[in-house]
Design a protein that fits this description.
The protein has 16 helices and no strands. By secondary structure, it is an all-alpha fold. The N terminus is likely disordered.
């Protein structure tokens, strides 16, 4: 078996290595990073920071994703959503994937150190380690609150973008982190309900597996209420204006509608539809922040 996997890994394509980086997830992260950069300044983001800062953050995020593939390869081979991943099917060996992750991390850190600042680089490294080591290596298998605690690492990109431009921490980017932190549980638990049987088969203690679907649906609803409240804080602290407020209320109201539909079990496939909407919610909310910011500058 080992020989077979080694032989198959020789035939890995560039697409397999691209898949190791979870490109769709990285793109969403980079959107929030970009928004953090543009919100951090009124004078415009230097092109070197814009290009190489985001490239560095993206490379480090891809490195963390590749480590996730290595650690979760047994789980991935069991679950229908992930069983065709490169390591699960043996197209890439664990050693090759770890080497690829190291290469990405070194390249990403080098770009951040050269073209941004040390604080941005070290915060990015901390985020990488938080996801790849703390969440993937420990929390995911240790507690049904894994996604709540581990979500902090995934919430970091807007902070990283902000710090890449300014070189220091402030309340505004921490508020952006708080929005993603509150968004993560209802986003991921909706998927976990949809994939409950697979998580149970893989022996992963996701909340629907350990506490049941009803308990999880209630917590999705409660977290969505928290998210709606948190999403209004940028307006409350005068970080954004009425355009963002209207967008946050509309988008949050729609998210709350889907959480209620899921809680009441009012429609078929409510869990996966809630999950899909949550992705659009985060994307559009950060776009609203960005558009509002430049509208305020124009006025």
């Amino acid at each position: 078996m080992t020989t077979l996997l080694r032989e198959r890994s020789v035939h890995a394509s560039w697409r397999d290595y691209l898949e190791l980086t979870k490109p769709k997830v990285v793109v969403l992260m980079l959107i929030t990073s970009l928004v953090g950069m543009f919100l951090a300044t009124r004078a415009g983001v230097p092109w070197t920071v814009l290009l190489f800062g985001n490239l560095g953050i993206g490379l480090c995020a891809g490195a963390a994703a590749a480590v996730n593939h290595v650690v979760d390869r047994r789980i991935d081979s069991i679950m229908a959503r992930t069983h065709k991943r490169p390591l699960a099917e043996g197209r890439v060996s664990p050693a090759a994937a770890l080497g690829f992750a190291l290469l990405l991390a070194v390249a990403g850190m080098s770009l951040l150190l050269v073209f941004t600042n040390e604080m941005a680089a070290w915060l990015t490294l901390a985020s990488l380690l938080g996801y790849a080591v703390v969440y993937t290596g420990f929390l995911k298998r240790a507690t049904p609150q894994n996604i709540v605690i581990g979500g902090l690492a995934g919430a970091a990109p807007p902070l990283l973008g902000w710090v890449a431009v300014t070189g220091h921490l402030s309340a505004e980017p921490l508020l952006l982190v708080l929005i993603i932190f509150a968004w993560t549980p209802p986003h991921f638990w909706a998927l976990a309900i949809h994939r409950k049987a697979e998580y149970a088969k893989a022996d992963i203690p996701m909340l629907p597996v350990t506490h049941g679907e009803g308990y999880t649906k209630l917590h999705i609803l409660l977290y969505t209420l928290v998210l709606l409240a948190v999403s209004l804080l940028p307006y409350a602290i005068h970080m954004s204006g009425p355009l963002y407020l209207a967008g946050a209320l509309l988008l949050g109201g729609r998210f709350l509608h889907w959480a209620w539909v899921l809680y009441r079990d009012a429609r078929p496939h409510a869990a996966i539809n809630t999950f899909k909407y949550s992705i659009w919610y985060l994307f559009l909310l950060f776009i609203a922040l960005l558009v509002d910011h430049y509208l305020l500058l124009a006025l």
